[in-house]
Each structure stands twice: as structure tokens, then as C-alpha cells.
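testing teh design pipeline on a random one, pls ignore if ur not involved
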């Protein structure tokens, strides 16, 4: 990739125009390997990234692993109770230290050649390595990454953070605090969905201010008062919210309360909250035209099992509808007939806000 090629691609979007005159990021941002590669460093390595749940790393030795746009990460609770994050790469031949998504360990041992690190990331064992000159174990521990907890979640930052996690979350953290936290919501299950589309297509779809709800999600449309659907953009977040209205069927039984709240955190985290339940969506790029969406479901303690099953079924249906339209959009973005689109001033300020944050991050991160 040449700098000239990338800069030419990035020059196709102006993040400083007012919404009324703005155009979307070009189709090439969804289809070019140059932009995809640039996002790995300029976006995902320079933002706080959710990697798991705090309940997974409570006891000493408990760990979680993650892949953040191609960077293997592990987070482990030390014997001293401190939560630490590292690149999940052995210093010998770059093999992964831990392969399981979560678990417990007394030490971090690479299964390739048996190099061993303690829970603080210090290199302790190097089998059959005597006689190697200019090598010190003290200099070859696991490179650390910043790690923090907020709410029920664990986050990491691959480069030096500009601000603490609570500052990054800003309006979301304040909103949750003003309501006394997330209540007694308990994790129920995780589901993953692989989509044949760029990760940004999924985020665009999420942030269109409900513009597609009536046409793509008939069940959800029945419980949201679309006329009062509102979008607020601040910091690294977007809040979409809508009053609720009574409806029949599974959606009506499980989507209740006064108001639905849909929070997005740049670049790829979503929290969807209704009365007594929440699901989180983590959008992970797998390639220029592939992404994975990880859903975690939470319910209030003591929720009836039939309600839980119905609620998960509703979410699964909404996701199936989103998968279909997102994959169709990705195919359309490859057409020679399409370059950029325009935004609905009434509905799509959140989608433009995402494009602005993305465009500025890429411009800054690529010089």
C-alpha cells in the first residue's frame, strides 16, 4: 500500500461539512484493503475496546482472550488481584500463549515450545535456552496493554490511552450513573453472527436513526413510537431513544417500559436497553467484506425463563433482518454505479457523526 493511494482514498470524504451538505464516506472505504489496513492502527488500536465481562476475570488466574482487528489479546487477574492485559503472543516465535476464549491458569505457558510467563507477564521459563547470548528474561516479558473495567465489562486499549475509560465513555457513563447503574441485570448467553459485509455497514445500519425500522423490522416497529425517535451525539457516543407503545406477540411481550435506549460507543460497541433486559453488540472486522457481531444477553435477576426465550427469539429475528439488508448493501457498494450517498437530515445525524469520527481518526492516524 502506498501512502499516496491511501491519502487519495481518504480525500474522498469531508468530515467538516454541515449535515445538510454532507455526503457519506465513499464506497471504496467499504471495499478497499488499504482503508481496512489503516483502520487496524488508526481506529481499533487507538480506541477503548470491549473484550469481555468482568465476571469472567474475578479470581486470580482467570483470563479472557480476544482478537481485535488482527491483534491477539489476553486479560488475566493476577495473584495480587490486579487485572492486567497483554498481547497474546509468545516472545519466542509469535505463537499464541492462550488459545481458549476464557478459563483459569496458574501460569501462562505457550504450547509451541513451552515458554512460560507468570500472571504478571514476566518471562519465567525458557526450556533448553542455555548459552544464548545477549538475552535476558527480564527484557522479554509479555508487552502490556491498558485494561480497565466499567459496569459489567472489561476494556483494553492497544496504544497509550489519551483519556481514562470513563472519560472515553463520557455521556454513557454519566447516563448509567444517573440511573443508579445497570440494575440487577445478569448475563444469560452469548451468540455470534458472521456477516458478509464490512463492519462499517453494520454500524451504519445501527445508527440510521430508526430510518429502516418500519421497512426492515415490522415486529420492532410495532413497539417503537417512531414519530418520537430521537438521536443525540456527544463525545465518542451516540444515543438513540424512542418511547415504547403496547403491542401484541413476542415483541410486545418482551419489549416494554417507557423508553428504549440504544447506545453506541465509537467505533464498534452497542448497548440496547429495555425494561428488565439488555443486549450488547460487539462488531469485529474479519476482513474488508466480513465481520462478526457478538451478542451478549442480560436479564433482570429472577426473569421468567419463557420471557427469556421469547426475548432472545425477538433479538434473533431482528438480527436476521439486519444481516439480510447489510449483506445486500455490501454487494451494492461494489457496483460501479455508486460512489457516495446523502443523509436524511431528520434521521441520520448519528450515521454522519460516525463517519465524522471515523474520517478524523483515519486522517489523524495516517498523518
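output:
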Amino acid at each position: 500500500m502506498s501512502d499516496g493511494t491511501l491519502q487519495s482514498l481518504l480525500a474522498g470524504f469531508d468530515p467538516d461539512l454541515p449535515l445538510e451538505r454532507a455526503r457519506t464516506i465513499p464506497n471504496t472505504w467499504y471495499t478497499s484493503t488499504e482503508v481496512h489496513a489503516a483502520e487496524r492502527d488508526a481506529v481499533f488500536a487507538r480506541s477503548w475496546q470491549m473484550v469481555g465481562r468482568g465476571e469472567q476475570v474475578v479470581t486470580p488466574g482467570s483470563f479472557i482472550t480476544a482478537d481485535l482487528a488482527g491483534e491477539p489479546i489476553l486479560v488475566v487477574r493476577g495473584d495480587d488481584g490486579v487485572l492486567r492485559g497483554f498481547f497474546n503472543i509468545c516472545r519466542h516465535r509469535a505463537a499464541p500463549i492462550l488459545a481458549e476464549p476464557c478459563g483459569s491458569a496458574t501460569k501462562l505457558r505457550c504450547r509451541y515450545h513451552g515458554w512460560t510467563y507468570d500472571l504478571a507477564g514476566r518471562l519465567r521459563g525458557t526450556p533448553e535456552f542455555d548459552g544464548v547470548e545477549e538475552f535476558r528474561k527480564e527484557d522479554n516479558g509479555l508487552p502490556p496493554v491498558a485494561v480497565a473495567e466499567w459496569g459489567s465489562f472489561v476494556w483494553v486499549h492497544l496504544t497509550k490511552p489519551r483519556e481514562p475509560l470513563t472519560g472515553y465513555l463520557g455521556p454513557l457513563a454519566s447516563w448509567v450513573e444517573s440511573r443508579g447503574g445497570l440494575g440487577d441485570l445478569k448475563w444469560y448467553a452469548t451468540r455470534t453472527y458472521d456477516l458478509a459485509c464490512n463492519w462499517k455497514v453494520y454500524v451504519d445500519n445501527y445508527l440510521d436513526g430508526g430510518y429502516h425500522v418500519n421497512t426492515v423490522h415490522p415486529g420492532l416497529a410495532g413497539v417503537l413510537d417512531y414519530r418520537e425517535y430521537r438521536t443525540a451525539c456527544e463525545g465518542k457516543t451516540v444515543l438513540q431513544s424512542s418511547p415504547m407503545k403496547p403491542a401484541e406477540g413476542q415483541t410486545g411481550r418482551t419489549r416494554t417500559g417507557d423508553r428504549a435506549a440504544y447506545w453506541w460507543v465509537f467505533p464498534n460497541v452497542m448497548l440496547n436497553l429495555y425494561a428488565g433486559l439488555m443486549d450488547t453488540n460487539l462488531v469485529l472486522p474479519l476482513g474488508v467484506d466480513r465481520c462478526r457481531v457478538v451478542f451478549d444477553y442480560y436479564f433482570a435477576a429472577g426473569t421468567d425463563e419463557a420471557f427469556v426465550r421469547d426475548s432472545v427469539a425477538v433479538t434473533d429475528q431482528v438480527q436476521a433482518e439486519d444481516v439480510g439488508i447489510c449483506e445486500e448493501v455490501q454487494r451494492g457498494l461494489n457496483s460501479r454505479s455508486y460512489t457516495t450517498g446523502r443523509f436524511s437530515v431528520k434521521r441520520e445525524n448519528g450515521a454522519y457523526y460516525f463517519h465524522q469520527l471515523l474520517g478524523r481518526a483515519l486522517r489523524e492516524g495516517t498523518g
